Amino acid sequence: MTFDDNTPLKIPAELQNLLEERGIREDDIRQVLCVTENARQFHTHMATGHRLAYFAPSRVTYWVEYAPEEDGYRIIRAYSHRMRLLHGYNMASKKPPTDTGWLCSACELPLVTATVKLAYLDETFAVDLPACPACQRVLVSEEQAVSKMAMAERMLEDK
Prior knowledge:
Elements: E1 9-10, H1 13-22, H2 26-37, E2 43-45, E3 51-55, E4 61-69, E5 72-81, E6 84-92, E7 102-104, E8 109-110, E9 112-120, E10 123-131, H3 142-158
Parallel strand pairs: 1-5
Antiparallel strand pairs: 2-3, 2-7, 3-4, 4-5, 6-9, 7-8, 9-10
């Protein structure tokens, strides 16, 4: 199924409330899916079949976890952060490998833990995150985005 502006999105009411709290609009979700779905630039969870995609149209990176259905897409969660992912700088992590359960859909390879560079304001950080070993597309979980990254953003803004 190709994604366009008319593709139905199914967003449960409780998720809609959370999206409003987070300042994420349906247009933001549509933009993520439009850019990533048609190019197969998403991760697929091997057990559930859910897809996770991200897009950074400006200073905010939006993440959407969703499931394709016969007549559209069911949105499972959406979150955002303001740190930039610096692509192409991933290095092998010194931590032991762990099974992330996610697969890069473009490369059809399981994600592995990599040391990834993130930037916010004038600071750059090296963080261990799941990433594709071939194309280096990163996965930032909801917990990482709304707790750890948000806390780091606040701390840097307070400097």
